[in-house]
Structure formats: structure tokens, C-alpha cells
Write a structure and sequence with these properties.
The structure holds two protein chains of two kinds.
Chain A (H helix, E strand, L loop, with lengths): L6 H21 L17 E8 L23 H14 L4 E5 L8 H4 L4 H10 L3 E3 L8 H11 L4 E2 L3 E2 L9 E2 L1 E6 L2 E9 L3 H4 L9 E2 L2 H14 L4 E7 L2 H10 L5 E4 L4 E2 L4 E3 L2 E5 L6 E10 L4 E5 L5 E3 L10 H18 L2 E5 L12 H14 L3 E5 L10 E4 H7 L5 E8 H13 L4 E4 L1 E6 L8 E6 L2 E2 L5 E7 H4 L12 E8 H12 L10 E4 L1
Chain B lengths: L3 E6 L2 E6 L4 H8 L1 H8 L3 E5 L4 E2 L10 E6 L2
Parallel strand pairs in B: 1-5
Antiparallel strand pairs in B: 1-2, 3-5
The chains are: A alpha/beta, B alpha+beta.
Chain lengths: ~525, ~70
């Protein structure tokens, strides 16, 4: 038999071609594809970062006309389904993060100290959550209970107990592994927490500046093999931009606190910054093509990163999450009907003068804050409390606004100016710790005839500790003197103060007759 | 940190306590604007044009703008 010329080379070429074909058949389906269907470069890894922030207990759909004028938005059961869809699209490369302030803000969450939200977050399998300032609203014991019941890591690298240790159960960071890529998630809590929280809730804690702690932690996580670094911050967009400018090595900042709906991600000094509004209205979906060898983001979602969580007809939901929400919603009725005390007589309002209910609210504010004097705007009290058992719901109805108490130092002269303004207002200030006598025959600005604090004449130059609510403290009702306070501290909430006062002092028997006196 | 901050609402300078929120800036500027925001009649935006919630935080020097919704 004659062997054709180049037979050996042709056989080798044919074998090589078959081998290449076989390799392609086996290997091609495993190759990552781009959205267009073309094979992605081997070095790229697709990571999806899903994120929420500042949910503030909004697990039930609600109307927000600035987002959708007709249909409710938000709702944990709808959010859950959206998360599931994204995870299905990238099952091994998706992470789910929260940038904090998840629990405080709605009756269904507040009445159970955030339990419904934790339960939902556990079910959804969050990968990490940053500590927000409002996580301290119910004190450190409740925070501890939340952290211990969470099946996800709670992270904050800049909040320390004495000795420089983290709060129990809170870690400075976690390292996740997705598609072979190690991703460090470092938590940051706003140092302004001291200005937004009842001081007693922060006893023994210090809040370090993020730019002071992050460089060392970034070096540590890089040494531990992290290719990608995410700062999960609760400090607001302006602070996040500054952080990106001042700290090198952060690939992505997933932020919160300023409730900013960052529609198109911000690029600042090489760091991608995202934030998903507030109140559970949006799910942030940041898709990243990442090169783990170069430890570099190759591309990311540049437009329309936020998806509105909508309960419009036809929207799909997760029945398990719906069940959790329904269970707690059903219990709200029972919680609202709980009796916290009794009223010995009808507690009524009067925005034009002193009232029983105004006195009660002001007394509760003074007791809760430890201040000498309390001022509450009459218009902020929206319903009477009838004689008999007082329920949680009646407190909510009387004080429907989510006002916080604000305490400050004011001089006697400043207090006198407030009282002069008050008598001319349609909503006279309700008071506690003070007695004011007005001479209505005098001209505007000279109607205050006398003022006594704790039974003694008020001194114009003396400093008094005064508590009011955050509406008045920001200049509401044109009471601008409240903006001139010193040594300002915030908290607790007005409702919480009244609730506590009624529980401690029932039966409530307030008789309004001599704190605000008019003559002539 | 200073106890007081300055923010700008529709270009007007507003003094607030540190830790106060977008709603407080609106109240200080004009209470009716705050009520309009609650009713969804106006949208509040930061200087980048991003929508911000009324419970959102404010940094010292922040600038916010209000625009009517549809």
C-alpha cells in the first residue's frame, strides 16, 4: 500500500482539529456570555450587587405620589420576588446588601422592635448589613437582640466600645466568595449618630472618622485575599464622595443615610457609588464585570441602576414573605388596642390656650428629657384622649407625627421672646415647668407680664434647659428662637415619651388652669 | 464637629442643628413646602439632580432644590 505524501502531517492535523472541536463542545457551554450572547473574556467575572438602605420598617406597600401618583410602591413581598429574579439570572455571582436604618419608622416594625424586618431579611439571605444611626433608637439592649436574631452579618468598622472592641455580634467586615472572587464588605456608620440619637443610647460608644479606620482595614482584607472592596456605608452621599476622594482602594460604595435615589451610579475618584433611596421603594441592581487578576472593575451599570418595587396589578410576589408581613400586620391591631394607663377625666386640646392634653404632653417631654422647661406646639396634638382606659392607638392618634424631642440651653431672655411670639400665634405653645402671665392690653412684643420657672421668677441672663420637638427646633411655626439653642441633644421620640409617662403616672389627672394666664 | 450646619434650599441659606434632615430644612424655609412634599406635590432633589427623601440626612453646605411633580 502506498502511503500518500504528507499523510502523517494530515492525520495529525485532522486529529488536532477533532480534539479542538471536542474541547470546544465541552468547554463552550461553561463559558460566561455577555448580554449579547457572545462569549465573555475568560478573565471577566460577572458580579451582581443587589442593595437596599433606609427601609425604615416599610414592609407594606404605600403611596408615594412623588414616585407613582396612583399605585402603591414598596412592599417586602414584591421586593423578595425581584431579588429572586436577579439571583436566578446570576445564581453564583449575586450578593445582597443593606446599608442600614432598616427597622425604625412604621407601626408594624416599631411595635415589635424591628422583628418583622429581621425575619424577612433572614429569609431573603442578606449577605451583610451596615449599622445605621437609627439602629440605636431603641437602645443598645434592643440592638443586641436584633443583631443576635439576624442570620446575616451586621458590619461597622468605626463604632467601638471601650477598649476599641466592636459591639458584641457586630463585625468590622466580612469577606464573601462569589465565583472564586473574594469580596470584602466593610461597614461604616455615620459619626453624626451622636447628633441624631438620645445620648443615653450611646453610652460607652465611640464613633471614629471613617477615613481614619478604613485604610488599615483595606490593607488587611487585601492581605486576606480580597480582590474587590465594597464599603457598605451609612453616612450620606456627600460623605461617601469625600470618602472616595480621600481613601484609596475602595471599588464600590453602597451607601445610605441621605435617602438619595442615585438613578445613575456616581463615579468618584475611581470608586462607584450607589444608593437606593429610602422606605423600601427601590432595589438597587449594580452589575459589574470584574477582572480578579487585575483586581479591577472592567464595566458596571451606568444607567437606571434602581428598580421601583411596585405592587401594581400583575406584579409578582413571594408568598412566604407575604405571610410574614400578614402575620405581623394582624398583630398590630392587638398591639394598638393594648391599654397602657387610664385617664381620670377627658384630656382635651386647645390650640389657643392651655389645655389638659397640652399640659400632659409637655409634662411627659420634661420627664423624658430631664429638662427644666418643655414647649410643645398645640397644633402638633391632633386628637383628644377620652376619660377611661388609654390605648396605644390613642397615643398614636393624638401624636401622629414622628417627632423627636430636642433639648437645648436657652437664656431667660430667649424664652421670654418665645412666649411673646407664642401669644401672637394661632398655635400657642403648651408648656411645662413654667408659668406665664400675659397682659393682653399691652402691644405686641410686650405682652409677657411675668414668667416663673419652678415657682421662681425667670432671670433674663440665666440659662435654662429646654425641651421641644424637632418641628419647632427647626424653626417651624416661625419660632426661630429655638434655632439659637446651645448644647443640643435629640431624643427620645415624642410618642415614646408620652407612652412611658402614661404608664408611670396613671391614672392621669391633669387640670389645666394656671400655667398660661391671660388678663385684660 | 460643629453643632450647627448651613444648608441651602432653592438657593436660600438656612441654619440648622447638625443631624437635622431634609424635612427640617423645608420647614425652616417654608412650612407649606414641607406639607407639599408630604402630599407628593413637589419633589426634592440634591445638587446632582437625584431625588432625596424628606427624612434624608443633610451634610453641612448641602444644596437642595424643590420642583413640582408632574
Amino acid at each position: 500500500m502506498q502511503i500518500p505524501p504528507n499523510y502523517g502531517r494530515r492525520v495529525l492535523a485532522s486529529l488536532t482539529a477533532r480534539l479542538l472541536f471536542l474541547i470546544l463542545i465541552v468547554w463552550l457551554p461553561a463559558m460566561p456570555m455577555t448580554a449579547s450572547g457572545a462569549p465573555a473574556r475568560q478573565a471577566e467575572v460577572d458580579i451582581t450587587i443587589l442593595h437596599v438602605n433606609d427601609t425604615h420598617g416599610h414592609i407594606i406597600p404605600h403611596l408615594d405620589r412623588s414616585v407613582d401618583p396612583e399605585r402603591p410602591v414598596g412592599g417586602a413581598e414584591y421586593l423578595a420576588r425581584m431579588i429572586e429574579v436577579e439571583r436566578t439570572a446570576n445564581p453564583k455571582g449575586t450578593i445582597l446588601l443593606s446599608a442600614g436604618d432598616m427597622f425604625q419608622g412604621t407601626p408594624v416594625s416599631n411595635l415589635f422592635h424591628g422583628k418583622p424586618v429581621v425575619e424577612i431579611m433572614n429569609y431573603l439571605g442578606f449577605d451583610a448589613m451596615a449599622l445605621g444611626n437609627h439602629e440605636f433608637d431603641w437602645g443598645q439592649d434592643v440592638l443586641q437582640s436584633i443583631v443576635s436574631s439576624a442570620s446575616f452579618p451586621v458590619v461597622s468598622a468605626n463604632v467601638f466600645k471601650s477598649g476599641g472592641v466592636c459591639i458584641r455580634g457586630v463585625k468590622p467586615y466580612v469577606i464573601l466568595k462569589k465565583k472564586g472572587v473574594r469580596i470584602a464588605v466593610i461597614g461604616i456608620t455615620t459619626p453624626e449618630t451622636f447628633y441624631t440619637t438620645k445620648p443615653g443610647n450611646l453610652t460607652g460608644l465611640t464613633f471614629a472618622a471613617p477615613e481614619k479606620v478604613l485604610p488599615a482595614i483595606i490593607r488587611r482584607v487585601r492581605a486576606q485575599g480580597a480582590s474587590m472592596v465594597i464599603a457598605l456605608t451609612h453616612d450620606g452621599l456627600d460623605a461617601d464622595r469625600e470618602l472616595a476622594r480621600n481613601v484609596r482602594g475602595i471599588d464600590v460604595i453602597v451607601g445610605g443615610h441621605s435617602h438619595t435615589a442615585i438613578k445613575d451610579p456616581v463615579m468618584e475618584s475611581g470608586t462607584v457609588i450607589v444608593q437606593a433611596g429610602s422606605n423600601g421603594i427601590y432595589l438597587g441592581v449594580l452589575k459589574i464585570a470584574f477582572d480578579p487578576k487585575k483586581k479591577k472593575i472592567l464595566s458596571y451599570t451606568r444607567k437606571d441602576e434602581l428598580r421601583v418595587v411596585s405592587s401594581a396589578s400583575g406584579a409578582q410576589l413571594d408568598p412566604n414573605v407575604a405571610q410574614i408581613v400578614d402575620n405581623y400586620e394582624a398583630q398590630v391591631r392587638g398591639e394598638f388596642s393594648k391599654v397602657i394607663g387610664t385617664a381620670a377625666a377627658d384630656l382635651t386640646r386647645d390650640a389657643t390656650g392651655e389645655s389638659d392634653l397640652g399640659d400632659l404632653v409637655a409634662d411627659a417631654m420634661r420627664a423624658a428629657s430631664g429638662s427644666q422647661i418643655a414647649f410643645q406646639n398645640g397644633g402638633g396634638i391632633r386628637a383628644d384622649i377620652p376619660k377611661g382606659p388609654i390605648t396605644v392607638e390613642e397615643v398614636f392618634t393624638a401624636l401622629p407625627f414622628d417627632d423627636d424631642m430636642v433639648s437645648m440651653d436657652l437664656t431667660g431672655e430667649q424664652i421670654k421672646q418665645l412666649l411673646e411670639k407664642s401669644v401672637l400665634s394661632e398655635n400657642i405653645l403648651q408648656v411645662s415647668g413654667i408659668r406665664v402671665e400675659y397682659d393682653l392690653s399691652k402691644p405686641a412684643g410686650a405682652k409677657v407680664a411675668s414668667v416663673a420657672v419652678a415657682g421662681k421668677p425667670m432671670e433674663a441672663d440665666a440659662t435654662y434647659r429646654v425641651v421641644t420637638n424637632d418641628f419647632l427646633a427647626s424653626g417651624g411655626g416661625r419660632f426661630n428662637i429655638f434655632k439659637k439653642g446651645r448644647n443640643v441633644s435629640v431624643g427620645p421620640s415624642l410618642r415614646e415619651g408620652l407612652d412611658d409617662y402614661i404608664r408611670r403616672n396613671s391614672p392621669i389627672n391633669v387640670r389645666a388652669k394656671n400655667r398660661i394666664v391671660f388678663r385684660n | 464637629m460643629k453643632e450647627n450646619i448651613v444648608v441651602y434650599v432653592n438657593g436660600r441659606k438656612i441654619g440648622l442643628y447638625r443631624g437635622m434632615k431634609v424635612k427640617h430644612a423645608l420647614i425652616a424655609y417654608d412650612e407649606s413646602l414641607y406639607r407639599a412634599s408630604l402630599a407628593g406635590e413637589i419633589r426634592v432633589e440634591d445638587e446632582n439632580g437625584f431625588t432625596v427623601g424628606v427624612e434624608g440626612s443633610l451634610a453641612d453646605g448641602a444644596r437642595i432644590l424643590t420642583t413640582p411633580t408632574a
